[in-house]
Amino acid sequence: MKRESFFARNPSVLVFIAILALFTLGVTLASEAFGAGLISTSFIKTLGKTLCLCLIAVAMDLVWGFAGILSLGHFAFFGLGGYMVGMWLMYERTRDIVVASMANAPIPPTPAEIDAAIGTQIFGVVGSSEFPAIWFFSGSLVMQLLLVLLVPGLLALIFGWLAFRSRVTGVYLSILTQAMTLALALYLFQNDSGLRGNNGLSGLQNLPGVTASQAVVSVWFLWASALALGLGYLLAAWVVSGKFGSVIRGIRDDEARVRFLGYSVEGYKLFIFTLTALIAGIAGALYYPQAGIINPAEVAPIASIYLAVWVAIGGRGRLYGAVIGAAFVSLVSSWFTGGQVPSVNLGVYTINWVEWWQVILGLSFVLVTLFAPKGIGGLFDLAQGRLVPNRHGADYGPDQGALMEREGRE
Amino acid sequence: MSTLLEVSGVSVTFDGYRAIRNLSFNIGPAEMRAIIGPNGAGKTTFMDIVTGKTRPDEGRVLWGEKSISLTRMSEAKIAQIGIGRKFQRPTVFEDQSVFDNLLLSLKNKRGPFSVLFYRKTPSDTERVHALAEEIGLADQLPRKSGELSHGQKQWLEIGMLLAQEPQLLLVDEPAAGMTPEEREHTTSLLVQAAKTRAVVVVEHDMEFVRRLDCRVTVLHEGSVLAEGSLDHVTANQQVIDVYLGR
């Protein structure tokens, strides 16, 4: 029996990777650092951040669209990934500054003095100068990068184990995940949490030891984000393409049936929940150096709800739908909230889009849920239905196929 | 005769209501058994207990030659050791093809990692085709199972159970809502299956039970009222009073 390759069975993956590569190339050629300078550095950062949001949307689609677990807490993992990489960025950069300023002192500073000076610099805003224990590895990039995976992964593993083992499902699970991300946000808001309270970590756009300008660094991060999105998409597509995908879609549609077929439903849920938490952590670790700052508001419950809205609008249950949803909604959102859209003066009332955008987003979410449950991604079905009528094998005659084609146009 | 499944002295109470009282039931390795009884007799609860969905308050449920206790096992574990269950309402994965439904059910390793790295082997494909032939869906393999008729879905679910290669099949009202021809096919599927394994059929329809031509257990208010051939139990005055007489 001849095996078809993974790409032959999933042509949309190749198309996606190609579009992503073309996009990255195009942006690079239009950038200030490597090309014509058509796109400002700040917009390149926006695009890079958008790619990271697309990556977490892919994770959300895996856990919600395929496995049916409506997690409203994945931004907690995203934020933790950002914090972990932010700790290293902040420590190293502060260290560089401190060492440079002490270099002119008559007596060379001892390592302890340098350490104390860094501590004062970083934790002065929360009235402390001591390094909390969680900063133990902050001097090591390798360790902090490992923590980008370990911290969200462990949180997801423990939370998921407790929740799934107790067979918490549906809306109750969604509420629990909201509680998780809220608890994390409230904890981080405290000054003695060790992560600078509501100040968060800042100056993350400056890479320690790198002298290149932000114009160059922004393109690097765009590349890294595109690579991560490409690999994440590939991984997700591989996970859902085979029997594993069959099992998790089975869990989504009929949990009891899967259980009585002998599959440990809880084990599968835990697996997919943790895997997506890892992807979210990586996405966050790439996002926040481009944003430059992370604070506890980033893991507020509303962020994870937005994530669900993106995936719903884009079309859950198909990976490219999630990417389209995240890219479309977040870009439109930054356009509206960036104050670039002229207000509409109605005489008695002026529509200010910064405020009204939320209403539009909420309304479109409701409309998509009611009238187009397949989301934007469903449009591809229409396009495809026009080209190749889906005849479900040889059984249907051409007449019925033609009927479906006509239905597709409607 | 050796016993495959031994249920003895089992009782279950839901919020003060005793759904099962002191129920005992045995079945051998290659035997067909029909369970009949009026609504609320405890037929479905009985299946829930055997498959691990409901934990009995007291009593024993022992499995196989080694007499393993099932009362502490998870549903998935029980399914893995060889008990398959068919629900009353046909439950197949409607969003997936008939082929994928059967492939998913084939007896293979069930852990997340082995499933993630699973690659379809020619023998598995062959097995799926053979099963599809057996349940009469050979020409429907690429179709989404949601498009199948009610009867076809029931057969697909039976096929999914057979794919697990269970030693005991628990089947809840397989003939409900079927046309006479479909019933006939269902009967022959179950009779065929019972040649190599134990099959327990819960059924309301007397005509269908008669066709199965097997021992019958009558449940009433959570315990066994009578057991024997269909003619024997239908002649029992108690059975007539509580069930047939209505």
From TrEMBL, chain A:
Transmembrane spans: 74-91, 141-164, 171-189, 220-240, 267-287, 293-312, 319-336, 356-376
Record-level Gene Ontology MF annotations: branched-chain amino acid transmembrane transporter activity
Keyword terms, alphabetized: Cell membrane, Membrane, Transmembrane, Transmembrane helix
Compartments, as annotated in UniProt: Cell membrane
Membrane-topology annotation of the record: Multi-pass membrane protein
Recorded GO CC terms: plasma membrane
Pfam families: BPD_transp_2 (PF02653)
Protein name: Urea ABC transporter permease subunit UrtC
TrEMBL record, chain B:
Domain ABC transporter: 5-246
Gene3D superfamilies: P-loop containing nucleotide triphosphate hydrolases
GO molecular function, one term: ATP hydrolysis activity
Annotated InterPro entries: AAA+_ATPase, ABC_AA/LPS_Transport, ABC_transporter-like_ATP-bd, ABC_transptr_urea_ATP-bd_UrtD, P-loop_NTPase
Keyword annotations from UniProtKB, A to Z: ATP-binding, Nucleotide-binding, Transport
GO CC, any one term: plasma membrane
PROSITE patterns, per the entry: ABC_TRANSPORTER_2
ATP-binding in keyword set: yes
PANTHER family: CONSERVED COMPONENT OF ABC TRANSPORTER FOR NATURAL AMINO ACIDS-RELATED, HIGH-AFFINITY BRANCHED-CHAIN AMINO ACID TRANSPORT ATP-BINDING PROTEIN
Listed name of the protein: ABC transporter ATP-binding protein
Species this chain originates from: Seohaeicola zhoushanensis
Phylogenetic placement of the source organism: Bacteria, Pseudomonadati, Pseudomonadota, Alphaproteobacteria, Rhodobacterales
